[in-house]
Amino acid sequence: MRRLLICGMTACCWARGLAAQPVPARDLWEFPLGAVLEPAALAAEPGAGLWNPAASALRPGERMRLGVASLSTGAQQGVDGQLISASFRRASGTTLGVSVARTSVAGLVRTESDPQSVGDISYASVLVSATAAKTLMPHVTAGLAARWREGRADQQVNTAIAADLGVVIHDLPWQNARLALSSFLWRPGREIDDRPAFVAAVDARVVGDSASRELRLGLSQNNVNRGATERGPFLSGRLDRLEARAAIVRASAGGSSVTRIRSGLAVYYARYVVGVAREEGISGLGPVYQFTLSSILKE
User: Fold this and answer.
1) Closest CA relative to residue 50, chosen from 189, 245, 174, 185
2) What is the pLDDT of residues 113-170, one digit of tens each?
3) How far apart are CA 261 and CA 250, in angstroms?
4) Do 50 and 42 contact (CB within 8 A), yes or no?
5) Contact, 252 vs 272, CB < 8 A?
6) Most buried of 31, 58, 240, 271 (most Cβ within 10 A)?
């Protein structure tokens, strides 16, 4: 784990040496790829730890986790995203993972002197992450992520390196409570023109006696890029193979705010978890849909 932390600090140093020109398509990572079904700080369903590297940690007895996620919006926004990930737990208890995520906007056309299209404009971003997570002491799991991001806006293409830290405090004696927080796309020395996001969540079991039969209630808070904030309560209830989840998200930016509702279902079958989720559209925009699939291989 010490060597992994050194590598993460090295990634931070690399970030300082990057060109001053910002990386395009940063705003595409404000869409909750892999985190519609769960709050971002606790999102573990795809197994990637995309938003919180500590959430990628596998429990004792679990050897490997494979996962995919897909997100799409209505035609008004034309955004879609994909995520694929793999995590492996070593004998030392450290979980190592890698993920590749891509998000883009379709339907942007190039015009010249008249409205006639003369081609498409590319607006997309790719994010490659390497993560490490380990339970450092009872109830405390920490994670580190080194990330490489490419952004494209028409003919402009730039890259950046980021390093993120996350922690999950879990299985607490009082109501099996959890607390999670993490940075996202943090580039040391570049916080002014490429502000990182910070995600946090806390929840507790209000009914039930096990992870497969419980009702949980919590609160999430996300400080995303450009000073916008998202916060709201979320609820999840599981009964054996079926789990239902819902959240109310209030987003505030520039003195205005809007409220969105998220809902979804997860089905547990054998070693597979399948999830579908929906975020309500606002201001005439269509809803956001998400699909996740993950599989855990046990020792």
Assistant:
1) 185
2) 555 554 578 889 999 999 999 999 999 999 999 999 999 988 888 999 999 999 999 9
3) 9
4) no
5) no
6) 58
Whether the Cβ atoms of residue 111 and residue 61 lie closer than 8 Å to each other: no
pLDDT in tens, 88-114: 999 999 999 999 999 998 866 565 555
Span 17-38, pLDDT tens digits: 444 457 888 889 988 999 999 9
Q: What are phi and psi of 34, to 5 degrees?
A: 80, 5
Can you tell me which residue has the tokens 């990182």? 196
What does the pLDDT read at residue 75? Answer: 75
Cα distance between the two ends of the chain: 22
DSSP string for residues in the chain: -HHHHHHHHHHHHHHHTS-SSPPTTGGGGGS-TT-SSS-GGG--TTSS-SS-GGGGPPPTTEEEEEEEEEEE--TTT-EEEEEEEEEEE-TTS-EEEEEEEEEEE---EEESSSS-EEEE--EEEEEEEEEEEEEEETTEEEEEEEEEEEEEETTEEEEEEEEEEEEEE-S-TTTT-EEEEEEES--TT-TTTSPPEEEEEEEEEEEEEETTEEEEEEEEEEE-GGG-EEEEEEEEEEETTEEEEEEEEEEEETTEEEEEEEEEEEEEETTEEEEEEEE---TTPPPEEEEEEEEEEE-
Q: What single letter denotes the amino acid at residue 241?
A: R
